[in-house]
Specification:
heterodimer; A: about 375 residues; about 65% helix; about 0% strand; globular; B: 5-stranded antiparallel β-sheet; about 20% strand; membrane (chain B); peptidoglycan synthesis (chain B); cell inner membrane (chain B)
């Protein structure tokens, strides 16, 4: 199928496309990234060069990538979806053998100028392939068991590879991200209800098995869960990071302790303060006002994406936009839940704010897809 | 595949519906996040803020400088000196072994200490400074400072440590300090947090421990910020310490030094007291020990040397030593008899050399007897029978009451360790202590200072001062606190008639100056300086009837620990009493030969404020005295280093 199937007379072409990009989203992304530069300067003790400067360069590169991807017609990306998925899958298999294991157990491939995490690429590729799949699938078949199992397979295959690394955080994001695309595509509620019910049942069974003969988890695994549920039981052990993170966050109060005045961050009570726990520093130094503002920025990005998607008659573009927005949502909500003690520490960075190259580039590329979908949306409706 | 327009419409509607549901769910979860943030940062912020402060702020104590102890002239006895030490910070040292090897070539390192320090260093965090060597000379520290570039991580450091510039002279009075031990802590209900500082010095014995509360001072505090690993980041605030209170003793450093030196060869104790004020101007106990050994932490070998010495250097003979007063007690017996009018002032008693009483024979030291003796002769020649009779007529309880009035059996409240009250026997005392009834024969033993009566040199000095003044003078050791003079209490007159007292004083004068006085050899010949005294010899063994028949073995023939104690009490000048002295020379033989001569020398030093002039001694003794004095290891008197008062 081709792009020309739609009524194309109002679709911009050539360099004029750039004027039709979703500048609101681009502006919001830049705002979030600027919060990142500020916080990276703060956690480096005022040293701009250490983390903020490389991060800024990467964002600039990512911004160009976004525009470049956005200029390319959306149907090209739809046609590339299968290839991207296979490529990402191949990379995931490749890192199993040749990758380097770093902190947080994520595997990457050193490309020389940057470290590429195939699992990051997979998050977007998965959203692409699923969007393309539902674009292709007639609506009447969407909820038929066979046509449901197929995308489930597409999701579980990379998830299994990522779990093997082992990277629980990314695995959860893959399943959730894929599930959201399926949900948006219109898969029957009952499937989701069944999965949630099965999950709750499994958790209930695991917990009720504790202390019995048929105990499903090892004792130490139970203890980890205990520590998550109540970090104060192990304040200097596994619960230390969560406890310190909550202390930092809570002690920020309404308006925070001021830029570079966060005692918890500055005195190294916080772990990974430039990556996974950067939100804690933000909340400590700028308080509820600072943390909530960032939440609103993210919320606006989601809203603009949803608005763009529901205006978009192109099924692929709409699903892709919703999928990318959902990926962003999953990133920051899991990260924030983690530092606030609502979720266990799984090692998910705060998108566009945490220090990290490949995550930022991949995310900006994904927003390039959103831009492409926005620019090239059919305007006949 | 070709899509119908209808299907496209339907699909777009579905995506819109599902997209809005999803957006709703996402916004819902973000609301949860926002509420959680609000709960933590607004409602519970105060809690978390407190936790964050607890995390980062530590309180550290600043040890105060200990109060300085001066003698009565302002010469420091206990001071704080710069203690030079070498400190190592492990994380700054590239190669510990190599650095230690280099250091070993520069300064003397004690192997045991070094091993202990290194173990501590590896146990603690790498940034914690650990002391490698302590109490180094300034030269050693300078050596390390000069070589600093070659010794990264090693720094010279300075702290305060107690020093006793007069060494052993004041070991028994002032005592010493030492690091707080677990035992010290276990004795305290609410220990000062200062005591938790490693190696913090507190008083262990003597004035140092008795007046610990005043000397210690108040700790300062500093609030410091620490990071997660406990490293000190910066100081947030500081409250300076209050230094300990300075004390001034009534002891004269020169006299004390002279007394210690004069008694160095003996196992002896002596107390010199100012009769007008009660000031203790010297309290000697010989042999003494070096308090510095204890400040550093004494080695087992050195400690055993001190404890196994039969002269008991660690024992403060001046206040802790209890001895039968022997004949020095006879003034008490005489005064009691006079007060109760059982023997008239001029009344005589027949001394045949013994007295039969209750089926036992009580001997006089003079086998042939003294003949008719009155009080004057009895004291001068130390006749025992006179006092047997006097005590027997007075009764033990009336005698005991008088003794207490003169300070015997009393515990004086002085800030020195191990003050003992001794024993003044009475019927009540015997019933309590032994559960037995008093036998009249015991009164006779008590009369001459034998039997159960036990006194310390301090008590004998007080007794002598009270005889000399007729007032209930109390001893005083602290002259001023922080430059403020301690008040001298006006002493109440004793309940003794002046004429009776005069009689005893005159007899004591005769002891020292009379033709037949037992201490005549130890008289002072300078006019206006004459001494009044009383010798005493206390047996430490029983003389059996058989031995007495054979002839009593002389002291020289006995092993040291079975010889008699020599005692002497005296005051001078006779006309205008200024100083009282008591002296005990353990197993020194007779009081007149062992105790009286050094007592005279010390008393003369006190009277003259320096080494006694030879013309105070009788002609025939001057040569010998001159040699003796010139050989004494005495220190020249010192000038006060600074005024002890802090106006």
């Amino acid at each position: 199928m081709s792009y020309l199937e739609y009524k194309v007379q109002t679709i911009p072409s050539g360099a004029r496309k750039i004027l039709y990009a979703n500048w609101a989203i681009a502006l919001l992304l830049t705002a979030v990234a600027c919060v990142g530069f500020l916080m990276l300067t703060s956690v480096a003790g005022g040293d701009f060069d250490r983390w903020a400067e490389p991060q800024m360069k990467r964002f600039a590169l990512g911004f160009l990538v976004m525009l470049a991807v956005g200029m390319v017609p959306i149907w090209f990306w739809r046609n590339m979806a299968g290839l991207a998925y296979l490529g990402a899958l191949g990379l995931l298999i490749l890192v199993e053998f040749f990758g380097t294991v770093g902190m947080g157990a994520q595997r990457w491939i050193d490309l020389g100028f940057m470290r590429l995490q195939p699992s990051e690429v997979m998050k977007i590729s998965l959203v692409m392939i699923l969007s393309a799949y539902y674009d292709w699938l007639p609506i009447s078949k969407v909820s038929r068991p066979f046509w449901v199992l197929l995308p489930v397979g597409l999701i579980l295959l990379p998830t299994a590879l990522v779990l093997k690394q082992p990277d629980l955080g990314t695995a959860i994001l893959l399943v959730a991200g894929g599930g959201i695309v399926m949900f948006c595509a219109g898969v029957s509620w009952w499937y989701f209800i069944a999965v949630v019910a099965a999950g709750v049942g499994l958790v209930a069974m695991v917990f009720s098995s504790r202390g019995t003969d048929w105990q499903l988890l090892k004792d130490y695994q139970f203890r980890r869960i205990d520590t998550f549920l109540d970090p104060s039981t192990d304040p200097l052990g596994a619960g230390y990071h969560i406890t310190q993170s909550k202390i930092a966050l809570g002690s920020g109060g309404w308006t925070g302790k001021g830029f570079m005045q966060g005692t918890q961050s500055r005195l190294n009570f916080l772990p990974e303060k430039h990556t996974d726990f950067i939100f804690t520093t933000l909340a400590e130094e700028f308080g509820f006002v600072g943390g909530f503002s960032l939440l609103i920025l993210y919320g606006l990005i989601i809203l603009f994406c949803v608005a763009s998607a529901i205006q978009n008659a192109d099924r692929f573009g709409a699903l892709l936009t919703l999928g990318v927005a959902a990926t962003l949502f999953l990133f920051f909500s899991v990260n924030m839940s983690m530092v606030m003690g609502l979720a266990p520490v799984v090692g998910v960075p705060l998108p566009l704010v945490s220090f990290g190259g490949s995550a930022m580039l991949v995310l900006m590329g994904a927003f390039g897809l959103v831009q492409s979908a926005h620019i090239h949306r059919p305007r006949s409706r | 595949m070709k899509k119908s327009s209808k299907e496209t419409e339907e699909s777009a509607g579905l995506v819109t519906r599902r997209g809005l549901v999803l957006a709703g769910l996402q916004l819902g979860f973000m609301t949860v996040l926002g509420l959680r943030m609000r709960q933590m940062q607004v409602e519970e912020a105060e809690n978390y803020r407190l936790l964050a402060e607890e995390n980062r702020i530590n309180m550290r104590l600043i040890p105060p400088s200990r109060g300085i102890i001066y003698d009565r002239t302002g010469v420091p006895i206990a001071t704080n000196t710069q203690n030079y030490r070498i400190v190592i910070v492990r994380e700054d040292v590239p190669d510990v072994d190599e650095t230690i090897a280099k250091l070993r070539r520069l300064v003397p390192l004690d192997e045991d200490e070094l091993e202990k320090s290194l173990r501590e260093m590896y146990r603690r965090s790498p940034f914690v400074p650990v002391t490698l060597a302590d109490r180094l000379s300034w030269e050693d520290v300078a050596e390390v400072a000069v070589n600093a570039p070659a010794l990264p991580g090693v720094t010279p450091d300075v702290g305060l440590s107690r020093e006793y510039p007069l060494g052993a002279d004041f070991a028994h009075i002032v005592g010493y300090v030492g690091p707080v031990s677990d035992y010290d802590l276990s004795k305290l209900q609410n220990p000062d947090p200062l005591l938790q500082i490693p190696k913090f010095q507190i008083g262990k014995i003597g004035v140092e421990t008795k007046l610990e509360a005043q000397l210690r001072g108040q700790a300062g505090t500093k609030r410091i910020e620490v990071n997660a690993a406990g490293r000190v980041m910066r100081e947030l605030g500081r409250e300076e310490y209050t230094p300990g209170t300075d004390l001034q003793l009534t002891i004269d450093h020169g006299l004390q030094n002279f007394a210690q030196a004069r008694l160095a060869e003996e196992s002896a104790g002596a107390v010199v007291m100012d009769i007008e004020t009660g000031d203790l101007v010297a309290m000697a106990s010989s042999p003494s020990f070096d308090p510095d050994l204890f400040v550093r932490g004494i080695s087992t070998t050195n400690y055993r040397l001190l404890t196994e010495n039969k002269y008991r250097p660690l024992f403060n003979k001046a206040v802790q030593g209890l001895y039968p007063p022997g004949s020095t007690f006879k003034m008490m017996t005489g005064l009691a008899a006079l007060r109760h009018n059982v023997i008239g002032p001029g009344e005589t008693v027949w001394c045949p050399g013994h007295m039969n009483f209750g089926g036992r024979r009580f001997h006089c030291w003079k086998r042939g007897g003294h003949g008719w003796v009155d009080l004057n002769t009895a004291i001068t020649e130390s006749c025992d029978v006179y006092f047997y009779e006097a005590a027997n007529r007075t009764g033990i309880d009336r005698l005991a009451t008088l003794c207490h009035e003169f300070g015997l059996g009393e515990r004086f409240d002085l800030p020195v360790s191990a003050i003992r009250e001794g024993i003044v026997p009475s019927t009540k005392w015997k019933a309590q202590a032994r559960g037995e009834q008093w036998f009249p024969g015991e009164t006779l033993n008590t009369a001459i200072g034998q039997g159960d009566v036990l006194t310390s040199p301090l008590q004998l000095a007080v007794m002598t001062a009270r005889i000399a003044s007729g007032k209930a003078i109390s001893p005083r050791l602290i002259k001023s606190v922080n430059g403020i003079e301690s008040p001298i209490e006006e002493a109440a007159p004793l309940n003794i008639s002046a004429s009776h007292l005069r009689l005893v004083q005159q007899a004591m004068y005769n002891v020292s100056n009379g033709r037949r006085g037992t201490a005549r050899r130890s008289r002072i010949v300078t006019e206006g300086m004459e001494m009044a005294g009383k010798t005493g010899t206390s047996q430490v063994r029983n003389i059996t009837a058989a031995e007495r028949a054979r002839g009593v073995v002389s002291n020289e023939q006995l092993p040291w620990e079975r010889r008699d104690h020599g005692l002497f009490v005296a005051y001078a000048p006779f006309d205008k009493p200024k100083y009282a002295i008591s002296m005990i020379v353990e197993h020194g033989g007779g009081g007149s030969s062992a105790a009286a001569p050094p007592a005279r020398d010390i008393l003369l030093y006190a009277l003259y404020g320096g080494v006694p002039p030879l013309d105070a001694y009788p002609d025939d003794q001057r040569e010998r005295i001159k040699t003796m004095l010139s050989e004494l290891p005495i220190r020249p008197r010192q000038e006060p280093s600074k005024t002890p008062s802090r106006a």
